[in-house]
Design goal:
three-stranded mixed β-sheet; 4 helices; 2 domains; alpha+beta; 89 residues
Length: 89
């Protein structure tokens, strides 16, 4: 994707929602107020792409953590657990 367009919010207001939507269809638009970023406008396709990427990353993270927990977990019988608890006394 191309470099985001930075635009003062006042200019975006003057140019209108149609202009802003056209620009967002081509590239992400970052609205600013006194030089500070205040809003981001992007196409629905780009937004969906970001959401999918975030969900994929979250799924991979959860899966990785689950694998780590499973690798470190030990399943014991009740008798074994009882014996270990008595040995700690």
């Amino acid at each position: 994707m191309t470099e985001p367009l930075r635009m003062p919010a006042t200019l975006a207001t003057k140019k209108g929602a149609g202009y802003l939507a056209d620009q967002a269809g081509e590239r992400t638009v970052i609205l600013t107020n006194h030089g500070r970023e205040t809003a981001v406008v992007m196409s629905p396709e780009h937004y969906d792409e970001l959401v999918r990427a975030l969900r994929t990353a979250a799924d991979r993270l959860v899966s990785g953590v689950a694998d780590l927990v499973a690798d470190r977990s030990e399943f014991r019988s009740i008798d074994d657990a009882r014996a270990r608890l008595h040995a700690l006394r």
